[in-house]
Design brief:
The complex is a heterodimer of chains A (about 240) and B (about 375).
Chain A: E1 2-13, E2 16-27, E3 31-35, H1 42-49, E4 57-62, E5 65-66, H2 72-82, E6 83-86, H3 98-109, H4 114-123, H5 139-151, E7 157-161, H6 169-185, E8 189-193, H7 196-200, E9 204-209, E10 212-218
Parallel strand pairs in A: 3-8, 3-9, 6-7, 7-8
Antiparallel strand pairs in A: 1-2, 1-4, 4-5, 9-10
Helix pairs in contact in A: 3-4, 3-5, 4-5, 5-6
Chain B: H1 3-17, H2 19-55, E1 61-65, H3 74-82, E2 89-102, E3 105-112, H4 114-120, E4 125-128, E5 136-140, H5 141-147, E6 154-160, E7 166-178, E8 186-190, H6 191-198, E9 205-210, H7 214-227, E10 231-235, H8 237-279, H9 281-289, H10 294-332, H11 342-363, H12 371-375
Parallel strand pairs in B: 3-8, 5-7
Antiparallel strand pairs in B: 1-9, 1-10, 2-3, 2-9, 4-7, 5-8, 6-7
Helix pairs in contact in B: 1-10, 2-8, 2-10, 2-11, 8-11, 10-11
Classes of the chains: A alpha/beta (about 240), B alpha+beta (about 375).
């Protein structure tokens, strides 16, 4: 079953076609990597998939809803209900603790639940850092808080923009390990990256060039059986 | 946890953990609230302060008999006294005037309640003492100069007894009085002394110093007129009108300054909040990316503004009283009364002003796009 379908999607800024007739389907539970150099249209595509922008042409169907035709207000609601965002620069609110950052996402979505937020932090291995402010956390820890925040509202799609771009190798491994566990638990993940190693972790890799899909590589990797530790993400899928 | 609890948790965390920026806004609000609270306290205290100040410029009400052939009786004097509300009477001085001679020179004697006259006219400059014993007088400075009498010296006062005879009475000058007015041509003595010489013929005039504004004094005068037609009470307009003019001007000045200060406070808060919104563009973009509506983001900032207004108002209402106290002591040399109502008034006005000041900067948050945070700009 497809969770996301892009049909003949174009995004045009004046004379420039940032995206040019893109067709793409993402299955539920799939892990997709969107790759490409700067200016290839990755960010534009991410904005459209993340319900932060609408295409100039074409249809974008997310979990059964054509988001290319809805109002900005509805787009906000769909983004809130369906998308979990992970950013390269983490974007944690600096005056809120790790726990409060996760609860803030619940607050804008529905009702804050401290216990559930704590469970999300526990799932990413940060239960004991819950009361720390972002500036008291390492880059890797901040990214894990960002992932916990993205997961807390059980999104249909986890959208990550260069999730390891600001991390060292050790933390990159930790974050990719979390993604793998999430994937194993059934999460649909789209990672936008220029890092081939991060792209290699995905089931499928789509390469963009000049706003068009220049290549697609599907790996034969089967989704592994849930391993020990993967089940802790089950509750957020 | 309820949504409201989380809302206030975020608002208080933003204020408490971003102290340096918020202190600037808080100080701007507190300073404005201080001036507001202080000036309004002074505004309401000015009539009382000025009333007391003006009472030192002499009586502001006189009562004379309607018929010049008659005198004011002791019963009527009690009526006048009773007609002035409790706590408003500063001084009451009944007068009996009598022609007299010293060294064959004609003068006028004013028999009065010396304590009442003293309270009515604290501005009189006395050389020597006020009379404290029988047969002592307070001599007008012009008379003292004319007949070369000094405090402590004796003189004989001649008052007419009948057509051809006169009564000679010895007096001691307790002091001389300088006022720059007609009082310097009078000889002041106690009512008892004058009555012992000429007998009790009734009072010629009653002078009163009443702590009241023109409207209130006018009402007292009107009531007295209606109560006893044989009495003609009058306001001393020279004093009451001056008091009202000064009062109106001072109160207008206070209002103008208050409005200007509130305007400056709004500009300061607005500028600070504009900087805060600019600084926090990414945070606003993030909140929107997480699904916050424009209304939610605006509400977050207005919540912060409200808390700042509350804290600044509370701080300002306390400091405002001390400001008013200092002004009261230096300008009027009197304590300003504390008005408990100023605390809620200052807090509410501070919140309203802060919210208005926040409205323009906060409305800018609506224009911030959530995609901003993805671009990493």
């Amino acid at each position: 079953m497809d969770i996301l379908t892009l049909k003949n999607v174009s995004k045009i800024y004046g004379e420039l076609k940032a995206l040019d007739n893109i067709n793409l389907k993402v299955e539920k539970g799939e892990w997709l990597a969107i790759m490409g150099p700067s200016g290839s249209g990755k960010t534009t595509m991410m904005n459209i998939i993340g319900c932060m922008d609408k295409p100039s042409l074409g249809e974008v169907i997310l979990d059964g809803t054509d988001i290319s035709k809805v109002s900005q207000k509805d787009l906000t609601i769909i983004r809130r209900d369906k998308i979990g965002l992970v950013f390269q620069q983490f974007h944690l609110v600096n005056y809120l603790t790790a726990l409060e950052n996760v609860m803030m996402s619940q607050y804008y979505h529905s009702m804050p639940d401290e216990e559930e937020a704590m469970e999300a932090l526990e799932a990413v291995g940060l239960k004991d850092r819950a009361k720390h402010l972002p500036n008291q956390l390492s880059g890797g820890e901040q990214q894990r808080v960002c992932i916990a925040r993205a997961l807390i509202n059980h999104p249909a799609l986890l959208l990550a923009d260069e999730p390891t771009g600001n991390l060292d190798e050790k933390n990159e491994y930790v974050v990719m390990d979390i993604f793998e566990k999430l994937h194993n638990a059934g999460s649909t993940i789209i990672v936008v990256t220029h890092d081939p190693e991060v792209g290699d972790e995905a089931e499928r890799m789509v390469t963009l060039e000049h706003g068009r899909i220049a290549g697609e590589e599907k790996k034969k990797r089967q989704r592994p059986v849930i391993k020990d530790g993967d089940d802790k993400f089950k509750g957020f899928v | 946890m309820k949504k409201r609890s989380m809302y206030w948790r975020m608002v208080t965390a933003s204020l408490a953990r971003r102290r340096s920026r918020m202190i600037t806004a808080l100080l701007a609000i507190a300073m404005g609230a201080t001036i507001l609270s202080g000036l309004v306290t002074i505004y309401y205290d000015i009539p009382r302060q000025l009333g007391k100040e003006f009472r030192s410029y002499g009586a502001n009400m006189i009562v004379i008999p309607t018929d010049s052939e008659h005198k004011i009786t002791d019963e009527q004097f009690e009526e006048i006294k009773a007609g002035i509300p409790d706590g408003k009477l500063v001084g009451l001085a009944p007068y009996i005037y009598q022609n007299a001679k010293i060294n064959e020179q004609p003068y006028i004697v004013a028999g009065t309640d010396l304590e009442g006259a003293r309270k009515n006219s604290p501005y009189w400059l006395i050389h020597g003492e006020w009379p404290s014993q029988p047969r002592q007088v307070l001599l007008g400075n012009e008379i003292a100069k004319a007949i070369d009498l000094k405090p402590g010296e004796k003189f004989t006062l001649s008052t007419p007894k009948n057509k051809n005879e006169s009564t000679q009475t010895d007096f001691i000058v307790a002091g001389t009085v300088t006022t720059g007015g007609k009082e310097e041509e009078l000889i002041f003595m106690s009512l008892e002394d004058i009555k012992s010489i000429i007998g009790d013929k009734g009072l010629d005039v009653v002078e009163a110093s009443v702590e009241a504004e023109q409207a209130e004094l006018s009402q007292i005068v009107e009531n007295l007129k209606q109560k006893d037609a044989a009495l003609t009470p009058q306001m001393v307009k020279r004093v009451t009108a001056s008091q009202d003019v000064v009062l109106t001007k001072l109160q207008s000045l206070v209002w103008i300054v208050t409005v200007i200060v509130l305007g400056i406070m709004m500009i300061c808060v607005s500028t600070t909040m504009m900087a805060v919104v600019t600084e926090r563009r990414k945070e606003i973009g993030l909140k929107k990316a997480l699904g916050a509506s424009n209304e939610s983001v605006v509400s977050d900032f207005l919540g912060e503004g409200m808390m700042l207004g509350f804290a600044g108002g509370l701080l300002g209402s306390g400091m405002g009283y001390f400001f008013a106290l200092q002004v009261g002591m230096s300008v009027f040399a009197r304590r300003i009364h504390f008005l408990p109502a100023m605390i809620p008034v200052t807090v509410i006005v501070s919140i309203i002003i802060t919210m208005i000041a926040c409205s323009i900067p906060v409305s800018k948050t609506v224009d911030i796009e959530p995609a901003l945070v993805l671009r990493g700009e």
